[in-house]
Amino acid sequence: MSEMIRADKIRFAYPGADAPALDGAELVIERGTFAVILGHNGSGKSTLAKMCNAVLLPDEGAVYVEGMDTRNDELLLSIRQRVGMVFQNPDNQIVANVVEEDVAFAPENLGVPPEEIRKRVDDSLDAVGMREFVTHAPHLLSGGQKQRVAIAGVLAMRPACIVLDEATAMLDPVGRREALSTVRRLNREQGITVLLITHRMSEAEDADRVIVMDDGRIAMDGTPKEVFSRVEQLRDTGLTVPETIDLLDRLIQRGMSLPPDALSVDECADAIANALAS
Ligand SMILES: Nc1ncnc2c1ncn2[C@@H]1O[C@H](COP(=O)(O)OP(=O)(O)OP(=O)(O)O)[C@@H](O)[C@H]1O
Ligand SMILES: [Mg+2]
C-alpha cells in the first residue's frame, strides 16, 4: 500500500486562539483505508480534515497528499482534486437547481471537456444510486439523498480520498444508512480512501482503523477492537464506550470470563451465551 495522507507533527492555531487546535498531530493513512476519526468536541477533528485538502495549512510540520506538500501553491489544484470533502449540512453543499448540474459543478470548474463531464456525472450518480434523480431538483430530495448527491459531486472530480466531516449528523436513520453504505461501497469497490469523522461509535464498528483525537493530537489508533477494548482510556478522552463493550466490561468486573472486545451485537451476544453455557 502507498501513502494517501501523511501528517508530520502538525501544529496549528486559529488566529487569536489561546490554545492550538492541532498540537503535534502525526498520522499516516494508507491508500484504500476506511478510517473513522473520533474525538470529543473541539479535539481537532475538523481542523485535521481541512489540513487534508489544503483548506488550512499547518503553522509547523507538514501535510502530504500522495507525497504532495500542501504548502506548495502549485500543487493546490491537484491536491483538491485528489481529496474531496463532504460536510455536515447537505443544504450548504448544493450549488445548482438540477442534480446533474450540481454534480457537474466541480469538473466544469476544473475545465473537464463536456463529453467527459457527462460520463462522470452519470458514473458518479450510478455509484451513489441516484441516477434516476438526474433531472430532479436537489432541494426536494431527502437529507440522505442530498448527501449522496454531494458525494457524487465529489466523485465527479475522480478523487482518491473522501473526507466526510460529520456528514451523517443531520440525517435521519434511513438517510444515515444510505450515506454510510454508499461510502463503504466506494471504499470496497473502487478502493477510494475514506476518512469518516463521526460522533457515533456504531459507525466505527467495521472500519479498518479507528483514530481517536484528544487536544489536537492522536490519542489512540488501531483496529476497532483494539481501540474500543481500551475502555478506561476512551472514557479519559471523554468518549462514550460502545454499549456492547460497556456491557462486557461490567460483566468482567463482576467476575465473568468474557472477551473484552466482542464489539458487534452478535459477537457480544454469542460471547455472553457461551460464558453462561460453560
Ligand atoms: N474558525 C475558528 N476560529 C477559532 N477557533 C476555532 C475555529 N474553528 C475551530 N476552532 C477551535 O479549534 C479547536 C479544534 O476545533 P475543531 O473544530 O477542529 O474540533 P472538532 O474535533 O472538529 O470539534 P467538533 O466535534 O465540535 O466538530 C477548538 O478549540 C475550537 O474551538
Ligand atoms: Mg468538527
Strand order within the widest beta sheet: 6-7-8-3-9-10
Distance between the termini: 43 Å
Number of strands: 10
Number of helical segments with 4 or more residues: 10
Order of helices and strands: EEEHEEHEHHHEHEEEHHHH
**What ligand molecules are bound, each kind once?**
adenosine-5'-triphosphate, magnesium ion
Structural class: alpha/beta
Helix content: 25-40%
Q: What is the CA-based Rg, rounded? A: 20 Å
Poorly predicted parts = none
Mean pLDDT across the residues is 94
What does the main sheet amount to? 6 strands, mixed
Overall spatial form = globular
Strand content: 15-25%
What does this protein look like?
The chain has 278 residues and is of the alpha/beta class. The protein is 38% helix and 21% strand. The chain is built from ten helices and ten strands. The strands form two sheets. Strands 6-7-8-3-9-10 form a six-stranded mixed β-sheet, sandwiched between helices. Strands 2-1-4-5 form a four-stranded antiparallel β-sheet, covered by helices on one side. A hairpin with a 2-residue loop joins strand 9 and strand 10 (217-222). Helix 3 packs across helix 4 (114-127). The site of magnesium ion has 3 residues, from helix 1.
